[in-house]
Amino acid sequence: MKLKQLSVFLENRPGHLSHVCNVLAEAGLDIVTMTLADTSEFGILRLIIRDWKRAKDVLQSAGFAVNMTDVMAIEVADEPGGLEKILKKAEAGGLSVEYMYAFACKPKKNALIVIRFDDLTRASKVMTHAGIGVLSAAEFYAE
Question: Which of 46, 45, 67 is nearest to 56 (CA)?
Answer without folding.
Answer: 67
